[in-house]
Amino acid sequence: MTVRIAIAPEAAIEGVGRPTDVSLGPLRERVARAVERGGGEVVPLAEAEGLVWLLPGGPQPLMEVLDAHSHLRWVQLPWAGVEHFTQVFSYPQAFTCAKGSYAKQVSEHALMLALACLRDLVRHARAPHWNPIDPRSLGGLNVTVLGGGGIATELVRLLQPFGCHVRVLRRSTTPLEGADETLPISELHAVLPSTDVLVVALALTPETRHIVGAPEFALLPPGAVLVNVARGPHVDTEALLKALDTGQLTAAGLDVTDPEPLPDGHPLWDHDQVLITSHCADSSEYVATMLCERVAENVRLFAAGRPLTGLVDPAAGY
Q1: 53 shares its domain with 146
Q2: What residue numbers bound the domain in which 48 lies?
Q3: Which positions fall inside the D-isomer specific 2-hydroxyacid dehydrogenase NAD-binding domain (predicted)?
Q4: What's the Cα-to-Cα distance from 238 to each of 167, 198, 213, rounded to whole Å?
Q5: How far apart are CA 260 and CA 125, in angstroms?
Q6: Which one, 29, 108, 145, 146, has the greatest CB density within 10 A?
Q7: pTM exceeds 0.85 for this model
């Protein structure tokens, strides 16, 4: 049986009367084709069983749509991180997100940041004169990855040729393929003293906010570097600056910051041990392509009554 799927922003307009965001038109057309590839039919919201939500911003518009259209059974969100939508997950619908979809590009970015930090790329790039600085190799180092989802899985694979000892810390202790150790998050303090590269790649929840702060920086060994490709609030920014200034931390590679966007003039911008990329680990084209793959897959699964990919756990918040 063909499943009927609505797509925002048009669905949001029908539901709550908001103006069209015309910039989403091309993406909506691609998502519509993905729905059809999955065996679904794009229909108006009043006729839909499922909803693909593309509208940027906060959760209120989606909540208004769900209040007005309780017949919906499934909502696909376009983001991997859905920490701003936790209040929506109290609704009875099944919610899926894009977790894992963008992992390949983000894991490449994490590897790049780690290599750049170890080789002092920021100081090299800013030097106005010949300035030899001895590089450090990633080969054989101890890498601790906070998070055991798609990014961690891909990063572990990318690290294999470097001969690193890789620990993954996650909610589940089910071994992650390729990792030398898979441990619970509670073991973080125990492993930090032997961590050369700490990579943050986990979902943001109240429990993981500031999971890396002054106590954690104090436990890292001399020469350690931090890479954050998850969310800015995972790291205590003031503690990070202090750790860099005192030499507790050698370098940081940040695709995300707290606050974000990072304001002009913030001390992180001028720090010669910090490499910042403006939350651009995955490209717009890549995101659109992978989102469409997730939509097509989930439409097929929804039609077949099978478990959906990227299902949000309301209790965990992601």
Answers
A1: no
A2: 3-101+283-304
A3: 112-281
A4: 26, 18, 8
A5: 24
A6: 145
A7: yes
